[in-house]
Amino acid sequence: MSQDALFTEPEGATPLDPEDAEQLIPTWVATRADLNAVEQANIGQAVVWASSRSGPTTLGDLLSEPMMRELHARMFGDVWKWAGTYRKHDTNLGVYWPYIRTQVRDLVADVAAQTANADALPWSPDELAVRFHHRLVVVHPFPNGNGRHARLAADLLVSLLGMPVFTWGAADLSSPGESRSSYLAALRHADQSSEYEPLMSFARS
User: Fold this and answer.
1) Which of 82, 87, 170, 176 has the fewest CB atoms found within 10 Å of its own CB?
2) Bridge partners of 80?
3) pTM value > 0.70
């Protein structure tokens, strides 16, 4: 299979920069299915870590700029050399790349302030976590894996706020299909209207 076919991304995803694509760690990966499988295995390990005492066990642990990078590194560090490293070029999505660190730092600081008083949250735990997810996707900090990273980060946040983790349509959103289309539509609705109900409903579907 050609490199172009291996790294063809589904609708709404960020195409990998050629230099980033060269930093694949497992040399045996030859098909898109291989890549999906090895990434999913790595993400599974990250979920176990994040749910353990070694992971972020408090809001203070989670809501830091270094933790956002560590979470991505845990999710993709066995697959990509750039895991946990912010992108160094502009993409079809995301903020101008030199602003990424500041934008992530501002985001986690804002959410830390919003959640500082559990008895006076500005929105429900679900909406807080979905807003966090959406804003992280908008920043698009990493060369790839941003949606998956933002979903796990939102799961951890909503869990620390006392709610069950999201189900995200109970589907693999990395692959084309009806669930991915619904997810992207909910994200775009939030982009255009700053209304989060469709994304909240999808996250719990």
Assistant:
1) 170
2) 24
3) yes
How many independent structural domains does the chain possess?
1
Per-residue confidence in pLDDT tens, the chain, 205 aa:
445 556 666 666 677 888 888 999 999 999 888 999 999 999 999 999 999 999 999 999 999 999 999 999 999 999 999 999 999 999 989 999 999 999 999 999 999 999 999 999 999 999 999 999 999 999 999 999 999 999 999 999 999 999 999 999 999 898 889 999 999 999 999 999 999 999 999 999 9
> In 3D, which of 133, 5, 6, 20 has the Cα closest to residue 68?
133
C-alpha of 139 from chain center: 10
For residue 87, what are the domain limits? 3-203
Q: Tokens 């990493």 map to which residue?
A: 142
Helices (H), the chain: 3-6, 18-21, 32-50, 59-62, 65-76, 100-114, 125-139, 146-160, 178-193, 197-203
In angstroms, the CA 53 to CA 48 distance is: 10
24 strand-pairing partners: 80
146 closest CA partner among 186, 165, 174, 125? 174
